[in-house]
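Predict structure. Chain length: 375.
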Amino acid sequence: MVANKYFDITVQSPGRINLIGEHIDYNGGHVLPAAINLNITIGFKKQEGSICDISSKAKGSFKLDLDQPLKPKTSDQWGNYVIGVVDGILKSRPQKLSAFNCEIESNLPIGSGISSSAALECGIAFGLNSLFNLNLSDLELIKIAQKAEHYFVGTKCGIMDQFAVTMGQKNKLILLNCQTLKYQLIEANIDPYKVVLLNTNVEHKLASSEYNTRRKECEKAMEIIKSKYPDYHHLAEVPIEVIKTIKNELDELVFKRASYVVDEEKRTIHASEVIQNGNLIKFGELMYASHEGLSNEYDVSCQELDFLVDYSKKHNSVIGSRMMGGGFGGCTINLIHEDYIKTYIESVTKAYKNRFGLELSSIEAEISKGVSLVN
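Prediction complete.
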């Protein structure tokens, strides 16, 4: 899709990567994401009346009546990402939104962990804000998109995905404090390495339900911590020494989840420091440590992801690898020397096919700008 005379405006909304800091955003910690050069493209046109026509080249179409109460759809559930955003905008700017048509086209692989859902939410929010001159701030748009996922989709996600999609800048990583929303832009100086995503092309059914379960487990840990140490408000800020003092009061699984969170927070801060100092080898080691925690303490990996990370350790051309996203499938994110990307992908693809009988797909991701209008 390109901007054309039919549309009043056209928006590009990117996917995102997260180099380190997984399952930390909803625990009030730091993350290190960036927007990438794969996008959802959405064309918008104002329409008379109250009926909106929403169409996706991949998913189909549906109508939306702005004069009726908006509720989640039980079929064609991809539409809930759109409906939730429209509902949030109607509540934030009553009487300011009128009917529109939009057409959605995506080159983001679904279920790969690069947050096609946030790209869609933020693209719709940004587009309607621009189309109707609503003057919503970036942060307001981010929070509308996040609430759409909470209340219309049913995933209690943190704010990282929507923040990265909206605030991303070319060749910049975002060190984001998910508690305060303060952030720092960091130069993505990773030469001679490139970011390569290896998509397992599996999406286990546990992904959505277990995501919410992990959040509840972390909330349980925080309840017990606050009863003893009321000055702490977010799990990521709790020292490991405090976690250990209440080990006997925590379920074994809850202790593992809490331990992972506080360790991952330390890793992310350390990683942001070493990448600024140009120590890419140490950064890669922290990526591997992150995956170990996600696999063994947070239990959100799977055999396909573990296989890809373990395979990378045998190759000097790869300095870091870990699962990325919610888990139970999707992608690993890898730092691979630019001279060996082609040969490594050929090698790992063959090994993966031999092991699982599945095709592996790869994406060389460039760090790019956030959601924007197409010129």
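Summary: The chain has a mean pLDDT of 94.
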